[in-house]
Amino acid sequence: QSFTEKDLVFYYSKYFKKSLSLKGFGVEGFEGLAALIPDTVAVNPKTSFLEVQQPEDTTSAQFLRITEAQRRDRRRRLDAGDESAELKFPRATAQAQAGQRQQAGQRQQEGKRPQAG
Questions:
Q1: Which among 35, 63, 85, 115 counts the fewest CB atoms within 10 Å?
Q2: CB distance 30 to 22 below 8 Å
Q3: pTM, 2 dp
Q4: How far apart are CA 109 and CA 117, in angstroms?
Q5: How far is CA 80 from CA 29, 67, 84, in A?
């Protein structure tokens, strides 16, 4: 079972409880995001459905190995002078970072409150 690119924002917010911002990944469209994770997801050119590139039972350790292999490949390409291999994620503004820290602190405080009972 899969879904199309247009449904990605809905499922991302449903499961991660935050909105998907492609600009946060330094890309303009989904194609740019998919190019960052080619071993994980691709778009079927005939149906436009997203297709998982790994088996369902892929472990976290296997994803970690894939990520590390991609990191090493980017480092090798950068060392060889290929500037297109550099990841260019935009830096969050100081105001946004402060807001995130405040929200995290509130969640932590909520977890420490004694249960009424």
A1: 115
A2: yes
A3: 0.60
A4: 18
A5: 28, 20, 11
